[in-house]
Amino acid sequence: MALTKKLHIKTYGCQMNVYDSGRMADVLAPLGYTQTDAPDDADMVILNTCHIREKAAEKVYSELGRLNLLKRRRQKEGGDVVLAVAGCVAQAEGEEVLRRAPYVDMVFGPQAYHTLPEMVARISRASGAQLNTDFPSEIKFDHLPEPTRASGAVDGASAFLTVQEGCDRFCAFCVVPYTRGAEYSRPPAAVLAEAQHLRDLGAREVTLLGQNVNSYHGAADDGSEWRLGRLIAEIAEHTGIERIRYTTSYPADMDDELIAAHGRIEQLMPFLHLPVQSGSDRVLKAMNRRHGADDYRRLVERLRTARTDIALSSDFIVGFPGETDSDFEATLALVRDVSFVQAYSFKYSPRPGTPAAELDGQIEEKLKEQRLARLQDLLNTQQRDFNETCVGRTMDVLLDRPGRLPGQMVGRSPYMQPVHASVPENMMGQIARLTIEAGHANSLAGRILCP
Ligand code: SAH
Ligand code: F3S
Q: Of 262, 303, 358, 422, which one is least surrounded by beta carbons within 10 A?
């Protein structure tokens, strides 16, 4: 067997999966695996999957079909490629994966990837497909090695850091509580150490991740419990990380300390992804959300009082079972009232095993499409308007990737907009002060003030 082996990881879905993929690479590195962008070169291919909507899950099976051809070709040549399905599809339907794609070698959920070396060893002893969909997050985090640059833990100058995993909210439409399990918060000391380590690897920005990140309640060594506001304050004070973001938050879990943090902590960026899902109280109740539309409006007001320029982003679902025209109008009204700088909106997709999938009043696809188009029209207009109001302003932009044109780089504004600018090469990974010259549908163009 060759000493170095090639690993290809294809990541679907959320930022948590991006983080997990990096950590899988870290776990496999001691076994001689280095990453490759080309599945055709790989000795092992991991699909790190998403189960949130039906389309996301189906994509995995078509990709597996293609990989099976690669596997057969390899086997004909006397070699092999190990095929693994990780992430939430693996967790939710592990047995089904093995039934539909029996050639898969390993199936493991988001809480089991620290056992990868063991699974790899078992396969090489040819003892059949490995299925591992155990749950406990706390064990996983204790067994993960430190993130490395090679695994992509720090992409440009920005890094993800998982602080919380799982969700206990059980929104009626959502698979996350089933695929990611119960809420678990990593201890503050572990988070601070990882933030410091990422800083040492060159990260200037860290995005704290969790399925319900603002429910964070980490047990500190002195027995006290830290909420997210405290955690952010300590990261800001002790690690030298210059920009902090967090995602994804649940409206009812925005506590006073966290709201105040937005006004107080300079490193905390003025952008918040705060999914509301619907503007109708009736639908929100049926969704088992613990907030009404006006609670959300009031929360936004408080955030804007704490930090006047805070920019909001959200998630919406249209066509939830029983959604009437007037429910949908209430969603449009909320969007008009709040004004979002960016948003994700989806047609409701029934997920097996979730309560909403069993509800009467499922909405026709066509109507969902019409509502989605109207909502997206409004959201796109708001996004463009916001981008246009940025013209003439000066913003600090963390330049962290090459642009499409030679001499160009792209970075993120404090408000998460991608900003393109022509800048000297040595600015990569730097925070540059740019004047915004143009605002487009999805991005800004900037000019450097003092190169
Ligand atoms: N807090 C989570 C949210 C998970 S899902 C996180 O980011 O980790 C992201 C978004 O997908 C949700 O906010 C919701 O708007 C959408 N979504 C979840 N389940 C869905 C379903 N069954 N159909 C359509 N959209 C869904
Ligand atoms: Fe899903 Fe609701 Fe939790 S959207 S991740 S169950 S807050």
A: 358
